Amino acid sequence: MKINGVFFDIESTGLDTKQDRIVELSLIKIKDDEMVMTMCIKVNPTIPISPEATAVHGITNEDVENCPTFSHYAPEVFEFIGDNDLYTYNGLKFDIPMLFNELERCGIVWDYHMNNLIDVGNIYKILNPRNLAS
Known about the structure:
The chain is of the alpha/beta class. 31% of the residues lie in helices and 25% in strands. A 5-stranded mixed beta sheet has the order 3-2-1-4-5. The mean pLDDT is 93.
């Protein structure tokens, strides 16, 4: 089976997918197991990055203060994703809702139900359970 789709990861100002904002977005498009396109953007979130978030990803307010806002990149990100399968790690709880809300703030309605969503974090947890039965 060949992998096709877009793998992506988000770094943000915090963990609230409705109120926090993206500060970095990385996307890799795979076609028949080959990387065909990448996109990595740093974004001025227009709100402060929490110290807790900076401790995780290392991105400071100063790192992004002169970067474009997400609205500058939104149409390109939306086109990049298209109708591809989407691969994330814990993305069903964080990355997908975060990206959905950022796109919505830019006036882009993303019906992500049209994409197959593959959360490799969930697959890992199924294959490597951390419970008493295992």
